[in-house]
């Protein structure tokens, strides 16, 4: 299989409200950053793919306005997914694997501040049986958390510990929206407290992908994508076991997370990685993901969400791409040799993407 790597990653400073900044103004510094990291000009990019949501923007085809930040003239090869930017990265990865491109720019952005994001996300639900009830994203996450507690897999004290660890890890992250200890707070929707939930905020992120020798030329230590896969759970929440995530486990298996480096098969144990960036907006979802990915095995020493994760920074439609970017950045800096990155979309971990990244 053709080698493809993440060679640059950039993100904005994520904030609670960017009312005075348009999507284009938010994106342009990030796009300029990743291009400068590689020394590429916009004309050197063979393929561009973005991820965003018209529901957040409140208007149809909003992504076409964001193209002003990229520059669509001279004409470019461009695509867009109405998903988190992690899925845009998947499309670009496939484009490079087929040999149709040598380089790709992937970006994503989201502004949750203009509306009520909890209500906006109800539009992801079944339009006949569930959406008319208007169960918001926090309430659905609380159902999942309660299922975990009822099954004896966690408790409120353990969830508070996850929040404290994540936001403490975010202290040195200059882009994080929440850094340092955050009070547990009152119940927002029991059993979830305010500290168990992600911040509402605006932000953008971008990565550059390159193939083979081009990647080696653009950076000293490429983050090679050794495997990448995404799977989906049943749409109906009532037919799913909310304490487990079979789609995450399957995506990890197909991406080679449980294999030894360089393709030799492992023994089916915990992932052979030193870092895991998990897209878990709620503390309870990290519990589900750790179990699905076997990161709770007693012999594992994986550092989970050293960037602070989605509990510290959660721009909807960009948070998953940020997980891949943060994992790649640790490889670029020599702080990781083999990392796992995860992205999710939909209620209660409905859709899941897993990537395995390696240094040289």
How would you describe what is shown here?
Helices cover 31% and strands 20% of the residues. It has helices at residues 23-38, 54-57, 63-66, 85-97, 117-120, 137-150, 156-169, 212-218, 246-255, 283-292, 319-332, and strands at residues 4-11, 47-51, 78-81, 103-111, 187-189, 192-193, 202-211, 223-232, 275-277, 303-304, 338-345, 351-358. A hairpin with a 5-residue loop joins strand 11 (338-345) and strand 12. Helix 6 crosses helix 10 and helix 7 (156-169) packs across helix 10. The protein is globular, with a radius of gyration of 19 Å. The relative contact order is 0.19.
Element pattern in H and E: EHEHHEHEHHHEEEHEHEHEHEE
Approximate shape: globular
- Separate helix tally: 11
Report the sheet-strand fraction: 15-25%
Q: What assembly state would you assign to the polypeptide chains in this entry? A: single chain
Q: Structural class, from helix and strand content?
A: alpha/beta
Order of strands across the biggest sheet?
Answer: 3-2-4-7-1-8-12-11-9-10
